[in-house]
Amino acid sequence: MKYLLSFLLLIPITSAFGQLYKDSTQAVEIRVKDLLNRMTTEEKFWQVFMVPSDGDTANGKLKHGIFGLQLSASSQGDAGGQLLNYNTSDNALTLVRKINTTQRYLVEKTRLGIPMIPFDEALHGLVRNDAASFPQAIAMAATWDTSLISRAAGHIAEECKIRGIRQILSPVINLATDVRWGRTEETYGEDPFLTTQMGLAFIRAFESRGIITTPKHFIANVGDGGRDSYPIHLSERFLEETHFVPFKQTIRMGNARSIMTAYNSLNGTACSSNKWLLTDKLKDEWKFNGFVISDANAVGGELVLHKTAKDYAESGAHAINAGMDVIFQTDISHAGLFYPAFQNGTVDTNRLNDAVSRVLRAKFELGLFEHPYVSEEINEVDLHHKGALLTRQVAEESIVLLKNQKQTLPLPLSVERIALFGTDAAEARLGGYSGPGFGKVSILKGLQDQVGKRTEILYSEGMSRIDNSYEVISAFHLMSNGKLGLTASYFDNTELNGEPVYTNQDQTIDFHWTLYSPDEKLQADHYSVRWTGELTAPESGEFQIGLEGNDGFRLYLDDQIVIDRWNKQSYHRDLVNYSFKKGKKYAIRVEFHETQGEGKIKLLWNTTVKTDWKKEIPESVKLAKKADVAIVVAGITEGEFLDRASLKLPGHQEELIQALNKTGTPVIVLIVGGSAVTMENWIDGTEAIAMLWYPGQEGGRAVTDFLFGQINPSGKLPITFPLNEAQLPLVYNHQPTGRGNDYNNLSGQPLFPFGFGLSYTQFSYSDIRLEQATISKMQKTKVRFKLKNTGKYDGDEVVQLYVKDILSSVVRPVQELKGFQRIHLKAGEEKEVTFEISSELLKQLDKDLKPIVEPGEFRIMIGSSSRDLPLKTTLTIQ
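Structure (tokenized):
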């Protein structure tokens, strides 16, 4: 009996010291504490480190565990690079098996058996094979339909979950305050309220299905000139009133469990190591209890870019100590760069324990300890069908009709010939952070499939968005030492002196060393390069050859200098005419030096260019004259590392539109892109213009339905379209100026305002009234008005509510969006529409940055855009 009693007494002891963190009946915090107490420093480090990888289980690199992996993804492997490559050929089952294989190793072969979090990108669809690709995020915002976006996000979440993805690095809830920014397409636009509502719809759909969302990029990663991740210098007040709003609300109301930091610095400190931002604001003031991750390789940016850390170890210590929880790198080998700071105690122990606890808490909440593996019984048939229907609906609601003279649209079913121009008509581009889509349909195919039997489609590529007048000389025309390409000698000075510190066989000369130098032996702002070899001419005749770059360069042919721009200047393209003979070999030498960093150099010619755009336009004119209507599908080039200095249509698309405008054939311009374009050179001659954004895998079908009136356009702009780049940055909710808004040679007003979008029908607004015109700070009221469809088509109208504080103790915006509704009305139908106005909608920050509702009068404005507000009334707060 004594021995039995002793044995029974040992049971709780064994449970307490051996199995608590594996006991699902225990509270999460007890499990976290128990597991944390068992972990070594190295095991803790690996729980705050994440990478793209295919597992690395065979070589033991994961023997101490890891926070999580992005399977079937990789990078170029250097610690400075930021962009990733995604293997989109793996189907769902292949990805699931990779996850299960890696998870099984972590659970069964590591000391503590801590599972990983499989993560991935899912901005507007999971970036994987066979997954639906919805219209880009900016297009989702253009629907102004949070219910629809919730359904779309729910579908993406289901496609993530069957593949075992438990965290997505989405959504982007930055404000697109300057449309030159290349990543505008990834956002929900310029407005804090609209961005918040769209973000909440997206986030709740994922979090409710057990998938962690990661709103990003914290904070304000669009800087002066619309340049991505430029240094930000903004006051706390401005941040609180604008950029902070979506993040604060998605944490508090959407329960987002992770946040991703930005690459840029904020007021002199990199965001990834900014204690005021990550700890004082996010965790202490806002009570965020999730975990913070860096953007890819952003922590090392302190060393590589911001120059505030002497090495990667120090940058990692700065980040973790400031409030970063997980370091996101692009190669597993980078772990050794950061670990020394954890090992030697530079990383604060309490801060590390807090970071690890946040990660473990999420893993317990996800149920990964109990259910680490993903079912391999996958049936995607129903998902594919539902995805096609949903992506099409989002595309339909996102199209914004900007101009429609003479009721050119919708096209009559009797139209006999359509002249269709543009590479974007055939490409079906999906936008940044996209997978391949499932059965994507181009505009050309949509027209051919849906109306091709009755309407002849005359297609021509027209003018590409890419200027193809010159091409980079390929390796097939270059030879050195019996190998394709040129011998490259890299020097650690700017004058090609001495022996090279690095040599290579470069296939082409087409380099942009944005973040780092060509080699670790070189300083990014102090080196020179010489390329030598032979050039073989593919054709006979006089052609142009030259260099394009942002620093000093020289070009020699047969030892004769033909281009000499050695003195440092701004970005420039130099070309010379040169007589070539087909098959002849020419000695070639290119020299380049860099003195400022961000070196860029290209070797170009036009001998391989087969077309002349000036000759192509007359052919396009002939084609347009044969048709009843000409449709130009124009496109822009943008994205990460692709900010735009000019908002004009790139290439020679504008010249094409101008020529077609003179044919007498009605011209419709459809724009594929994720941001604003200027139109001053061609808008007057076109009959109709529509913004398609990146319309997703079903875009071709949705656009065809739009053109022929099967759907009525109802999208509204989530960004402001300027008349000219000189107006930028230009947003609708700016603060009052000290003078006028106009220039001496340009209006200050936009081309198309925020919230704008036409319909095939017309709507009238009338009879605005407040339920109570005077309320206390604690009360609510309702504003009512009548909306009538006065046209001949059924349609949706997005009604918008704006507020202006007539007299305030601090400067307030000229107007602020505070509500919107999508209302469907049949032709001739009238409805009463109601908005509730609460004190929460009228809150502002006082002089001490405390939220208050000030007594006084507020202008309530209702209409179809930020500029078209026919209904106004005044609400008084006592």
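Residues 1-16 have pLDDT under 50 and may be disordered. The chain has four domains: 39-365, 399-459+622-727, 471-605, 763-877.
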